[in-house]
Amino acid sequence: MITSEERAGHRSALTVMTWELWKRPLHWIVYTCSTIIAMLAFTGVFAASIAVDSSQVITCALLAGLAIAQSEATRRIEHQRRRLSITPHVNMTSVWVLPGAFLLPPQLAALLVAVIYLHLGFRSWSGIRHVNPHRTVANATTMTLSSFAAWAVLQLAGDGSASVTSICVAAFAFFVVNTVLTGIGLYLAAPDKASAPACIGTWDDNILELSTLCLGGLVTAALTHQPALVLLVFLPLYVLQRSVLIKQLEELATTDQKTQLLNATTWQQGAVREVARAERENGQFGALMIDLDHFKSINDTYGHLAGDDVLKGVAALVKSETRTQDLAGRFGGEEFVVLLTSSSKQESVAVAERIRQRISEMVIKTQDNEGNAVVIEQRTASVGVATFPLDGRTIDEVMASADASVYAAKRNGRNRVVSSPDLASVAEVAGMPLEAVAA
Q: Is pLDDT at 251 greater than 80 in this prediction?
């Protein structure tokens, strides 16, 4: 049964002129079209110069059937994983494409990739907005060129046997070419927002791809020596995909999706654990509350999407200025919180001052509601600093002190760092009671 959402996806795939491709940056369109043309040209040359025998056709049909069977068995999982993906999505087709690069002539390997991605596009990814037809074509092209690279390396090495060395060499060539082609494409699609994780994936993404290539190597060896053993790959592959989905769901539950920092609940839980640790070890930690000044004016002037880009920029900045053991989170709206483990008041103020300075130097290139390019810069932030146990014995008390410091900074000119012992001096300069400054 095909849903109306799937029918809409099928229609859009057949109407090339409506593809989102033509709304992409010119450099990306040129690059994508060039890789497609190169892939088709290579396939044509291989088809004209390399003979195909019936056993290779049977192997190609077998690999396609196995790939489709595995895709159908994990269709719901793949659909959910695709919806949740932020970094480059690893769809695990390498498990079947790598054996194709090893066991088939290149033109049949290209046909295998085309069959796999046609099935994925019409079955697993139909109805998902961010999986446009041109992206499916681009991904299939990258996989095809990666398989060509693996095949070429094997030809140069002169080792067509399914030895451990030859499989590793082919898998390495496949991985490198796939990573490079994908990274270039993602960079050209949005160079202003490009980052290493966004272009080449996180460590987890790359380890997952290497894991699928390892399974692909096992499939290659099984098909060469004992074809029936290929069936043993299905269950581990299903469990692997399910485990990745569970991890994505866990990240979704603990991470603020707009900034990729910890959400308020998860940050609070981590902070409570840090209080318990500090009490046991007679330690200390610092807490920062960062509030962007006049943030509403950004939304009012340029639109909420531009405001979101500013939040993402600040989040990336905060993450870069803190350590892996620190807790950085989004408290809500334009407020961010940071817990600096094993940090004194002086160290925490130094970090806060560095973050405040970098925010004032930040340049965000984005678009307004009309799609016009705009540059948002010279933004400021007010930062409040408090420490445990000096400013409180619970996380609520520490954060209340940091919050009071933020208000003191805002009432006295903004774009400054105020720590809890500074409240008295701020009140003295302002000629106000201490309670009024901290209110």
A: no
